[in-house]
């Protein structure tokens, strides 16, 4: 638990992220990020969570098609709530979902103020439920991540995430530093 807290603190202070202040194309640089998400559907009716991670853009020689490519490590901590009838046949519960993953990212119009992008990747997670009557739920979850993003002024990013954590669809806000 102490190691997890240390990693979270390093992400919050932006280790390595300050190199971006003077960079115009962001090639061969990294950037930390923190944010929040709201999700719908999936295991719960609604989920709320916090997001953190680190984005790294490949060097210019590795770019192609006029786009900016990179990878990111991402972690989320979500809370979900479910009431109703479906897969769990009339049960009600709350749950916590912790997830860590890696995504490949692409930015399309890199010279504009509003940069549109997309990402795809895989995540591993752990699901903990706060209700006893639910059977058939495995605590370990593998999920695919797919989504679209818009980054404003290289600092604010909004994402539409599909297959994210608990939810089928989620909206995220990320502050990049």
Write a structural description.
The protein is mainly beta and 177 residues long. 7% of the residues lie in helices and 58% in strands. It has 1 helix and 8 strands. The chain has one helix at 2-13; strands spanning 30-40, 46-57, 68-83, 92-107, 114-129, 140-152, 156-164, 167-176. It has an 8-stranded antiparallel beta barrel. β4 (92-107) and β5 form a beta hairpin. The longest helix is centred in the N-terminal third of the chain and has 12 residues, at 2-13. It is elongated, with a radius of gyration of 17 Å. The two termini are 25 Å apart. Residues 1-23 have low confidence and may be disordered.
Q: What characteristics describe this protein?
A:
177 residues, mainly beta, eight-stranded antiparallel β-barrel, 58% strand
N-to-C order of helices and strands: HEEEEEEEE
**Average pLDDT over all residues:** 81
Strand order, biggest sheet? Answer: 1-2-3-4-5-6-7-8
Radius of gyration: 17 Å
What is the terminal separation in angstroms? 25 Å
Low-pLDDT segments: 1-23
User: What is the strand content?
Assistant: over 45%
The largest sheet is:
8 strands, antiparallel, barrel
**Global geometry:** elongated
- The share of residues in helices is under 10%
Count of beta strands: 8
Concise description?
With 177 residues, the protein is mostly beta strands. The protein contains 1 helix and 8 strands, in the order H-E-E-E-E-E-E-E-E. Helix content is 7%, strand content 58%.
């Amino acid at each position: 638990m102490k190691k997890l807290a240390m990693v979270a603190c390093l992400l919050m202070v932006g280790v390595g992220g300050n190199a971006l202040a003077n960079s115009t194309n962001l090639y061969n640089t990294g950037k930390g990020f923190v944010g929040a998400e709201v999700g719908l559907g999936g295991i719960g009716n609604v989920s709320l969570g916090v997001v953190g991670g680190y984005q790294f853009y490949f060097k210019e020689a590795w770019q192609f098609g006029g786009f900016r490519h990179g990878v990111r490590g991402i972690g989320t901590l979500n809370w979900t709530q479910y009431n109703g009838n479906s897969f769990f046949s009339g049960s009600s519960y709350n749950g916590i979902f912790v997830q860590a993953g890696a995504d490949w990212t692409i930015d399309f119009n890199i010279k504009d103020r509003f940069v549109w992008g997309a990402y795809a990747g895989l995540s591993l997670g752990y699901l903990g439920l706060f209700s006893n009557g639910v059977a058939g739920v495995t605590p370990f979850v593998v999920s695919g991540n797919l989504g679209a993003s818009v980054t404003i002024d290289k600092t604010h990013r909004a994402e539409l995430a599909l297959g994210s954590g608990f939810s089928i669809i989620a909206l995220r806000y990320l502050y990049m530093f």
